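user: can you give me the structure for this one chain? tokens are fine.
assistant: on it. calling the predictor now.
[tool input]
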Amino acid sequence: MKQLKFRVKSIMLLSILFLVCSAFRGASLHGAHLSVDGLKNKKPRTETLTNEELRTEIVNYCAKYLGLTYHSGGKSPSGFDCSGFTSYVLGNFDISVSSSSSSQIFDGKYKSLSQVEPGDLVFFSRTPKGRVFHVAMVKESTSEGIIVIHSTCSNGVIETNISKDEYWAPKIVEARDVISD
């Protein structure tokens, strides 16, 4: 009888311990996501950041994915397409954009290419009045050109100076600011 009581108490204690650990684990992972290397990272807190700090955080986060492979329709670190990449990165900062490049061009507000800032989106079309087929995120804009990070079919997530690139430069359509209020 004593052994039975001991076993029941042990089972109850283990059950309580399991519930407490599960509740603690769930609370500590609220808002977390898995990064490329499988480590758990919490979403960055953006409420206290200035616009410039937020843009820097977004670009730094974006750069973590350089070298990832392209995947048509991909929206996660297992493989991104261009709009999946931009929406994933921005979503990590609670900035919601449409799911495709042809619809992301209507998100946020128009921005002159000469005024782009880190985190702005740049859109591309094969012809001047053609359908948007690609989107990239501005890393920086300098006198040397506009450097973007984007997911390309041929090279995955890469950094490109689109102002000097023979393929991308003639296809630039416009830029959008999806970060500022």
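assistant: here you go. Helices lie at 2-28, 51-63, 82-91, 101-104. The CA atoms of residues 116 and 141 lie 7 Å apart.
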